[in-house]
Amino acid sequence: MSNDTNVDDPPEDASETAPDGDAPAEQSERQGDRSPPEEDGDRRTDVDDPIDEFEPSPDEEDGDDIETVEDLGSTVEVDPGVEVDEDIAEDDLLGGLKIDSTADIEVPDRLVDQVIGQDEARDIIIKAAKQRRHVMMIGSPGTGKSMLAKAMSQLLPKEDLQDVLVYHNPDDGNEPKVRTVPAGKGEQIIDAHKEEARKRNQMRSILMWIIIAVVIGYAILSPASILLGVLAAGIIWLIFRYTSRGTDAMVPNMIVNNGDQRVAPFEDATGAHAGALLGDVRHDPFQSGGMETPSHDRVEPGSIHKSNKGVLFVDEINTLDIRTQQKLMTAIQEGEFAITGQSERSSGAMVQTEPVPCDFIMVAAGNLDAMENMHPALRNRIKGYGYEVYMDDTIEDTPEMRRKYARFIAQEVERDGRLPHFTDDAVEELILEAKRRSGRKNHLTLLFRSLGGLVRVAGDIARAEDRENTTRDDVLQAKRRSRSIEQQLADDYIERRKDYELQVNEGGVEGRVNGLAVMGEDSGIMLPVMAEIAPAQGGGQVIATGKLQEMAEESVQNVSAIIKKFSDVDLSEKDIHIQFVQAGQQGVDGDSASITVATAVISALENIPVDQSVAMTGSLSVRGDVLPVGGVTHKIEAAAKAGCSKIIIPKANEQDVMIEEEYEEMVEIIPCSNISEVLDVALMGEPKKDSLVDRLKSITGTAFDQGSVSSAGGSNPSPQ
Question: Are residues 682 and 559 in the same domain?
Answer without folding.
Answer: yes
